[in-house]
Structure of RNA polymerase sigma factor:
Amino acid sequence: MQTETNDLPQSEQKLPTAEFKREMLGTLKPLRAFALSLSGRHDRADDLVQDTIMKAWAKQHMFEPGTNMRAWLFTILRNEFFSQMRKKGREVQDVDGLMAGSLASHPEQYGRMDMQDFRRALAELPDDQREALLLIGASGFSYEEAAEISDCAIGTVKSRVNRARVRMQELLSINGESDYGPDATSAPLVSRSFVR
């Protein structure tokens, strides 16, 4: 006699493989963005996402239907990232950025320069603040979801996000809305409309 999935207790239910796969693949883009923001390198981000998907696939029986697949995958990715960081503790770091700076090319647009400044400032944040800011600001998670992913209290996440935002404003020398976009010297050049 076959048992219907709905007759099983919640802890024993699992998504059909096709549905699990579809939900999992639907989170690849935000998962990769989160991995890239944590690792800072495209190749490492891709490896991190691949490791996450492999682990999630192997542990799909542990996923509880009706819960947030995206948060579950982000938690796996985050844990994998920190696990890898602990293993690579002996890796030589480019702390002062001299090596990275010598490899960088001069940006062609203001947006690229702003993004470069933003990434540099983001990298200077403590890991916990950067993670909280990215989960809330870039990945769109609620404070509750971010707290679950980070395995901490909601108040802790809110505090980390607030401190991260304040620190980013300091690092980027942002005092108000006028600090966004082109500076006073270049604004007339980029806002000028050319009539044919």
In short: The CA atoms of residues 49 and 58 lie 14 Å apart.
